[in-house]
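F.,

This is the one I mentioned.
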């Protein structure tokens, strides 16, 4: 829900069902925000609980600790957070293995380079010996 120029503008946020659960629709007309009926005029007597009962039922639908909209949204966010954490752990393991592989390759390269430099020095000595004869 956004407040802009003394008007309330409602829009769904990340696929949230809160607007539907509150039965709010669109933008206000003047100072009136329209929405669906909470209870019909035929069942607004004392046996059905009246408007207070209906509002309480709708609020419970939002905040119910087992199946409320807020609880479902929290569970969804927790699940996505866990998925992201798992993916980060997988990527950390992948990076660690690649780093280890590259460090091993670099050490082998250093060893091969040292061997080649030793051979170059030996060839240089052989060339000096044959040149001095």
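My design for it:
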């Amino acid at each position: 829900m956004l407040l802009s120029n003394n008007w309330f503008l409602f829009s769904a946020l990340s696929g949230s069902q809160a607007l539907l659960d509150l039965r709010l629709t669109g933008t206000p007309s003047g100072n009136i925000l329209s929405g669906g009926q909470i209870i019909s005029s035929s069942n607004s007597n004392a046996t059905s609980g009246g408007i207070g009962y209906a509002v309480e039922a709708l609020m419970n639908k939002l905040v119910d600790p087992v199946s409320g909209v807020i609880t479902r949204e929290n569970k969804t966010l927790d699940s996505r957070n866990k998925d992201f954490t798992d993916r980060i752990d997988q990527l950390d393991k992948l990076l660690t293995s690649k780093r280890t592989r590259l460090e091993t390759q670099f050490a082998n390269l250093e060893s091969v380079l040292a061997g080649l430099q030793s051979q170059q020095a030996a060839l240089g000595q052989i060339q000096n010996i044959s040149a001095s004869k």
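The mean pLDDT is 78.

Talk soon.
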